[in-house]
Amino acid sequence: MSPATSWLTFSQNFARLLEDTEGHDLLITVGQEPLVKSFKAHSVILRAHSPYFHRALSKEWARTEDGQMVFYKPNVSPSIFRVILKYLYTGVISVEDKEGGFLLSLLTAADELILPELISEIQGFLIETQSIWIQENFYYVLDFAFTNDTYSTLQTYCMDSICADPHMLFSSDYFYCLDNKILRSLLKRDDLAIEEVDLWNYLIKWALAQNPPFVTTDPENPKNWSPGYFATFKKLVDGCTSLIRFTSMTPEQFRERVWPFHELLPRELCDTIMDGYTQQALQKQCGGQEKTIMLMKIKSTEEIFGMYISSVWNGGNSRTHDSLMFSFGEGRDTREPVISRIRTGGYELALDRGRKRGMEELEVFKISPKTVFML
Asked: Which residues are in the BTB domain (predicted)?
């Protein structure tokens, strides 16, 4: 007999035990008037399969009436508990004909009764069979998913849907009621199909909607805010500002949209961002440094390249034999980099003193002093 056949036989035997309730020692009453129902069960089976019942039906906690153990669960409906009870006895989840709202209620009950396998199965079934219902009730499902971290599969599904079509959320009135936890989860995503400057604008609008300023003239201008309101506003966005990728903005976008709110950001972050956009700042950071490594990405092509300068970068021309430039293409495969070495006796570095080249075409990952580099 195969393991699958053995399991099926055991499941059927326990199903019969549930139906005829022979030898039961427990009466469970669930629901609220007028929908109340009592179920006969075997405490040993429930305690074996549910940590919640293992504790609730222990000698220290169990209640007895007329020589029989009793348990009351008014916050779980009879229809929900019937599914759970069958699952505890047989391992079978009978929800094929249930709609999305029922499945969410089942998830809530399964979480309270500490049934992680059931939670996982229901989330997968909900996503697979109720995708239309989810889309029709998307914001309700989104809020529900983030009420509990055990609904991580449902959270990921909702986040994937938003990232694929962010304007579905950001252009809706619901966005301004969005929970801070959900907003932070979105900002952490790398695949959110929306410009970073637009994310910043939405963040400001979201925070203003949570606590509008008591001013009538240009309320979105922080110059018109009182010190008290500014402090309140800063608390609202504190967990979000660090998740904005400011280096993906152009200098103009940063100056026009972010700089008016620069007091919301750490001073070091502002200095780094503003400095990072100028050729002078690059020379200041790297000038006089020995054994320098720099990584950059061309914004228009996504090509990642860099250079290693072995001698001191002094702003002039110098000779070297072991400096090099390298490229990882678009960064999808770093196993075959293209390396260009300096010709024997060639110049390592020559700063362009002719036409000024804007740093906005580059994304400098980070300039960080290190004592040891491994190549």
From this structure: 24-97
Asked, for residue 374, whether it belongs to a domain, the answer is no
Element (H, E) at 297: strand 292-298
The pLDDT profile of the chain, 375 residues, written as one tens digit per residue, is 445 555 555 566 666 667 776 778 999 999 999 999 999 999 999 999 999 999 999 988 889 888 889 999 999 999 999 999 999 988 889 899 999 999 999 999 999 999 999 999 999 999 999 999 999 999 999 999 999 999 999 999 999 999 999 999 999 999 999 999 999 999 999 999 999 999 999 999 999 999 887 766 777 888 888 888 889 899 999 889 989 998 888 888 988 999 899 888 877 777 666 665 556 666 666 677 777 777 777 766 777 878 787 777 665 666 667 778 888 766 566 667 787 776 655 454 444 444 444 444 444 444 444 443 333
- Of 152, 153, 160, nearest in space to 189 by CA: 160
The number of distinct structural domains making up the chain is: 3
Give the residue from 226, 249, 274 where a domain finishes: 274
Residue 97 forms part of a structural domain: no
CATH at residue 55 = 3.30.710.10
Residue range(s) defining the domain that contains residue 254:
195-274
